[in-house]
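ARCHIVE CARD
CATEGORY: sequence design from structure
SOURCE FIELD: tokenized fold
FIELD CONTENT:
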């Protein structure tokens, strides 16, 4: 059984450039209209740190619109989730531009106290926006997908009540940030974990529902549609070491291609889903939450999203959110045969669930 989850990273460019109206507000309004038409919901990963700074420094006239839009998303039953690019937390203005603190680029390498400060502050701001003093998002996605080393950040976020992570993309590798999700490739469609997001641990407090990827040869990575999005990723002005590391990332036979509903064209999206549907026919009993990613800043072709939703509907695939499927995930896990008797963390060889 397949359920499809659209996740939307709600943010401007990673270096602080771009306007909220163009990169966040307007594309999200387009998506809201499309999803309303299909009576469907998505998960909005709100990058809270940048919104807080932008509001404090009054640098973007669209901040009230964006705050109102998040309330509207909440009211329309879209899931409000936490996304964090911590380089914004110490951001300052210089010559009318943002200077971000790249020393804090990866939340996971910061001291526990600092992680806790950042998360508390972000949750407080998010609660103010949604107007619910007790609001706790169910789900989290790390900035630049960096949820390694997992232990400390996961334990802080779990203390605050967050229960699902969706940062992993199987096969992912970034030498510059020591991100390595290759070990997760053997895992199922979702798994519990504790101190290492790559390693299933049935007793862990956290659940990973990764972004769906396919490993593809390098020549399948760029398409005309995707080529338009060269900017906004990575850190500008990389030094020699970082360039070397980026080069090492490219020296692979195959790459993880994320299921991206803002970057892929309809043919690519439906081709992946046709393969998922075929797998499901061969193995209909296993539950398969398929997570797609999109970025507000990348949405240039809303018609593709509309047509893709039509494709999913025609194929009888339910569109859901983490909040809706969470109890089902827990239930499926409690019923799944524990092939290794709960010793996956020791053997690391047998996936918790088939996938
Ligand atoms: Zn992001």
């Amino acid at each position: 059984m397949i359920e499809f989850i659209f996740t939307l990273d709600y943010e401007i460019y990673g270096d602080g450039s771009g306007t909220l109206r163009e990169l966040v507000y307007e594309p999200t309004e387009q998506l809201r209209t499309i999803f309303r038409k299909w009576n469907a919901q998505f998960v909005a990963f709100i990058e809270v740190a940048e919104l807080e700074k932008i509001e404090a420094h009054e640098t973007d006239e669209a901040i009230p619109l964006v705050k109102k839009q998040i309330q509207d998303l909440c009211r329309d039953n879209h899931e409000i989730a936490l996304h964090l690019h911590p380089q914004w937390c110490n951001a300052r203005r210089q010559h009318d531009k943002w200077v971000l603190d790249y020393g804090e680029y990866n939340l996971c390498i910061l001291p526990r106290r600092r992680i806790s400060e950042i998360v508390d502050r972000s949750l407080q701001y998010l609660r103010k926006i949604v107007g619910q003093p007790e609001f706790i998002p169910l789900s989290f996605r790390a900035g630049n997908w960096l949820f390694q080393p997992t232990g400390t950040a996961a334990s802080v976020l779990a203390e605050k009540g967050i229960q699902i992570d969706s940062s992993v993309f199987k096969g992912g590798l970034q030498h510059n940030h020591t991100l390595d999700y290759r070990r997760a490739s053997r895992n199922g469609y979702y798994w519990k974990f504790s101190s290492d997001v790559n390693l299933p641990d049935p007793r862990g407090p956290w659940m990973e529902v990764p972004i769906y990827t396919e490993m593809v040869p390098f020549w399948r990575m760029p398409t005309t549609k995707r080529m338009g999005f060269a900017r906004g990723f990575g850190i500008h002005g990389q030094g020699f070491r970082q360039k070397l590391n980026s080069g090492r990332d490219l020296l692979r036979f195959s790459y993880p291609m994320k299921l991206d509903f803002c970057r892929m064209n309809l043919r690519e999206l439906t081709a992946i889903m046709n393969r998922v549907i075929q797998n499901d026919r061969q193995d209909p009993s296993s539950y398969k939450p398929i997570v797609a990613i999109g970025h507000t800043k990348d949405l240039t072709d809303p018609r593709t999203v509309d047509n893709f939703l039509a494709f999913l509907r025609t194929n009888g695939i339910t569109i859901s959110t983490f909040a809706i499927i969470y109890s089902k995930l827990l239930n499926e896990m409690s019923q799944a045969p524990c092939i290794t008797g709960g010793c996956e963390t020791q053997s690391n060889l047998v996936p918790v669930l088939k996938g």
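CARD ANNOTATION: The chain has one domain: 2-347. The first strand starts at residue 2 and ends at 10.
SHELF: design records, drawer C
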